[in-house]
Specification:
The complex is a heterodimer of chains A (332) and B (206). By secondary structure, chain A is α/β, with parallel strands linked by helices. Chain A is built from eight helices and 14 strands. Chain A has a six-stranded mixed β-sheet with strand order 1-2-4-3-5-6, with helices on both faces. In chain A, helix 6 crosses helix 7. By secondary structure, chain B is mainly alpha-helical. Chain B has a single domain, classed as Serine Threonine Protein Phosphatase 5, Tetratricopeptide repeat (Alpha Horseshoe), CATH 1.25.40.340. Chain B has eight helices and two strands, in the order βααααβαααα. A two-stranded antiparallel ribbon of chain B has the order 1-2. The chains are: A alpha/beta (332), B mainly alpha (206). Chains A and B meet through helix 2 and helix 3 of A and helix 3 and helix 4 of B.
């Protein structure tokens, strides 16, 4: 697989150097430079919101550092968790004296490292944890807490970030993040694989005309693998699966995210989005603030994910609150 | 553990870390090779990095053995994002917290302390005994150390127990982590983490 890169060992650090040069609101920090924080620094008196994860998913996770979103983010090598040390640094840099929420995707390695980081800082900084668990293809509804976190976590970033900006305390910000995760559902479909820099083979193999429904953002196995179908048939199945998994307390208003897994262009996303809108409308569901674009990717993987956040009044207001990062801006 | 007496000292801990660090030079490639059969082939390089970072820590000012172990745990966390490295730091931190503030740690306490590390690592990583991981090595060591009263005999007993656990689990499948995806194909292979424990315990015994 062809990549624009130099030595694979430098892939992440050169990417971060370019990212921060392009977006001066982001700055690198930490002993190994693997923490991104707001160049304006932590705001005293505000609850900190921290995330972290492996590289290879931009704009996730580091791209969402900014006003009304994340304070800091630790970043690991491609598809590897951040080090405990960089998780500690991210927590410390986000600390404004009112505690720090750790908000990241449900992956074993990330969990271990963030838990360890919190334990090392016990007595210094109060921390809470909320895990993104929106991928409905990764476990059944009865094991929802085992699901992986994918694109839908950005809704939790937005709601928790807005709540923190408004001065809510750690318990309240944590509760909002958890409720947003509980009301978010995502499913993805993969059309072609990606490859970790330096690896001699792709992360998985799909036949020329094959797709996999429900595949995870690191190529984790999905629900079925079959021949490519028309976009409307794919969108219908994704929306049907999301609605079948509708949270018990989910209302009739949703925020809709149609996300590229990397290589799939905006044109195809809009074709999916068009059908998703029709299907939701037919089901009596209003779409508020739709998002279409690259929000959580897997490098050059082709495919898309659809996320629904079932809104309540409080979360809808938090989504509409101002935020500003290089990849998501809401103006008042 | 150096000294061979009945108590564990900060200088004994420092000597143990240096012995492990020296041994890693010869173990790095063989551990990488063992890991490449089941994972991404980085266990040796990762452990060399983590233990190297631990070996840089000046333990001479540590107040007591527990404080020394907590300093080592902190150093280990700086060098790795991998599960094995984080588990190692978790185990060190668990023992460090338990004995912090106590100047004298009897060698007879080792069995219980290793068991405590094992349990903390189990809670953090979600693996169970029998999954063919470092936890099975530590469990074997904790059991074997019951009743051991000197550091010299503890080092020898631990090395034997780690080797026996490695031999015993070779013919069983890995049940957790990336290696689990290979299922029964892992039968006949050494778990890289268990191999590392056995080799390091042997090096520390001297």
């Amino acid at each position: 697989m062809k990549k624009l890169m130099n030595d694979p060992v430098d892939f992440v650090d050169e990417m971060l150097e370019g990212l921060t040069a392009a977006h001066p609101s982001l700055a690198r920090a930490g002993e190994t430079g693997r923490v991104i924080h707001r160049s304006s620094g932590a705001r005293h008196g505000k609850v900190g919101v921290v995330s972290g994860g492996g590289s290879g998913h931009l704009p996730l996770f580091t791209g969402y550092v900014g006003t009304g979103l994340l304070d800091t983010c630790s970043i690991g090598n491609v598809f590897e968790g951040p080090t405990v040390g960089s998780c500690m640094e991210a927590i410390q840099l986000a600390d404004g004296g009112r505690g720090v929420l750790r908000l990241y995707g449900n992956y074993g390695g990330d969990r271990m490292n963030f838990d360890m980081a919190g334990e090392m800082l016990e007595g210094e900084i109060e921390t809470t944890t909320v895990l993104g668990t929106d991928d409905i293809a990764s476990a059944g509804p009865d094991e929802r807490q085992k699901r992986r976190g994918v694109a839908g976590i950005i809704f939790a970033y937005k709601a928790a970030g807005a709540a923190a900006e408004q001065g809510l305390d750690l318990a309240a910000v944590t509760a909002i993040a958890q409720r947003t995760v509980d009301l978010t559902r995502t499913i993805g479909v993969a059309l072609s694989p990606c490859q970790v820099p330096g690896s001699d083979r792709p992360s998985f193999v799909l036949g020329e005309n094959e797709i996999e429904m429900g595949m995870g953002i690191h190529g984790e196995p999905g629900i079925w693998r079959d021949q490519l179908k028309p976009a409307d048939a794919i969108a219908d199945e994704m929306i049907d699966r999301l609605l079948a998994d509708r949270p018990p307390n989910g209302g009739n208003r949703v925020s809709l995210l149609v996300n590229s897994l990397g290589a799939t262009p905006l044109e195809e996303l809009y074709i999916l989005h068009r059908r998703a809108q029709h299907r939701l409308k037919d089901g009596g569901i209003d779409v508020v603030n739709p998002l279409v674009g690259h929000y959580a990717t897997s490098m050059e993987m082709a495919g898309a994910s659809i996320s629904l956040l079932f809104l309540d009044d409080e979360i809808e207001a938090l989504l509409a609150a101002p935020c500003d990062c290089p990849f998501w801006t809401v103006t008042a | 553990m150096s000294g061979g007496g009945g108590t564990i000292t900060t200088s004994g801990i420092a000597a143990t870390v240096q012995a492990a660090h020296a041994a890693m030079a010869g173990l790095e490639q063989s551990l990488n090779a063992a890991d490449a059969l089941l994972g991404d082939g980085d266990t040796g390089g990762m452990l060399a990095r983590v233990i190297g970072k631990m070996a840089e820590v000046d333990l001479s000012s540590a107040a007591d053995p527990g404080a020394a172990l907590m300093q080592l745990a902190r150093a280990a966390t700086l060098a790795t994002g991998s599960s094995l490295g984080t588990l190692l730091a978790t185990g060190l931190l668990a023992i460090g917290k338990r004995i912090k503030g106590q100047p004298d740690i009897e060698a007879g306490m080792l069995s219980g302390l290793i068991a405590e590390a094992r349990d903390a690592m189990m809670a953090r990583g979600g693996a169970s005994l029998g999954d063919k991981t470092v936890l099975d090595s530590l469990d074997a060591i904790a059991v074997a150390l019951e009743g051991t009263m000197t550091t010299a005999s503890a080092a020898s007993t631990a090395a034997d127990a780690a080797r026996e656990a490695l031999d015993c689990y070779r013919e069983k499948p890995n049940r957790i982590g990336r290696a689990r995806m290979f299922g029964d194909k892992t039968i006949g292979y050494d778990d890289p983490g268990m191999l590392a424990v056995a080799e390091l315990a042997k090096a520390i015994r001297g």
